[in-house]
Design brief:
Blueprint (H helix, E strand, L loop, with lengths): L1 H20 L4 H6 L6 H7 L1 E3 L10 H4 L12 H9 L4 E4 L7 H13 L6 E4 L23 H6 L3 H17 L4 E2 L24 H16 L7 E4 L15 E2 L3 H5 L4 H4 L7 E4 L3 E2 L13 H11 L5 E4 L5 H4 L4 H11 L4 E2 L4 H14 L4 H16 L1
Parallel strand pairs: 1-2, 1-10, 2-3, 3-4, 5-7, 6-8, 7-9
Helix pairs in contact: 8-9, 14-15
Amino acid sequence: MKAEIKFLYLCVHVFLIFAFLVRPCYAENKINQKNLSLREKVGQLFIIRPESLNTAKTLEQINDNYKYGDVELNNLMRENLKKYPAGGFIIYGKNINDPEQLKKFVSDLKNSSSVIPFIAIDEEGGRIARIANHKKFNVKKFKSAEAVGKTENVKNAFNMAEYISSYLSEYGFNFNFAPVADVNTNPENIVIGDRAFSSNPETVSKMVSSYLDGLHANKILGCIKHFPGHGDTKGDTHSGYVAIYKTWDELLKNEIIPFKNNLNKTDSIMTAHITLKNVTSDDLPATLSREIITDKLRGELKYNGVIICDALSMGAIHDNYNSGLSAVLAIEAGCDILLMPYDYIEAFEMILNAVESGRISEARLNESVNRILKLKGG
């Protein structure tokens, strides 16, 4: 009898080991790069507004930050998602009605995607917080990153992000486009201001590190932004061209510090659309500049993680380049993820054509896709 029990125990033990080794893994099965079609690979490069799938709307409506928001996935959007399989979605306030609606919308976006999508949001804490600043959500509001930075206590940055990530996880998000790693070096800055932790780069660096730890506590991916630093600007890249005149050496001694010190901790880096007049010879916004993205960020600073461009629908890009060209230039510069092109379908088709024609090699495409899938399955 004892021998039979021992044999049965051994059989069960062997079975459990076997089951563990061959267990189905959603991440591995769904996001193996070799299993993706060319269109699916191209789609992985994009994080889009849900409205970009709703071709019944005008481009102006799709790109309005406050109105004409989709709050559910309709049949037209589902069909377009099959044709243009996006790698992720960003949720704005206009996509949110209430907690139950948000959960269902996020769930439907996930379940309708052929590959696990990023579900992203700008929930920095402070004035940029799509959920916390929504009247239907009973969550704690934070005054600003600047207020946290003034405490000089990095635990406060952790607590801020840990709390934010807890409710993001509850609603199905996996990506937060935060924290801001900009150094608030220009008091006339209308874009960053109190979104930055400090005007001291070392303080910013420490707060950013702790904030990332807080996001990771609830398995939310983070993104440090806006490389190479949007703190010393007066203009707004949302509305048009912005240039800075610092040299690279000057940036390294200040604005670059929080980015450089967190390269090994962050999940991704978001680029700014600022033009660095005394750094590059191409006179392109950083997002489209190979000198900044490939030569400086990847080459000199040795960053090999995911690079996301800031929204391609912003004025600094959209006013000067069509959606297809800006998408191609950003990939050629070294970006991996193209955020919110003004016209998603045009951008998708242009990238697809660029790969098929050889302008963008499939090896270059695979390089970005592999980084993205690694982040999704990590």
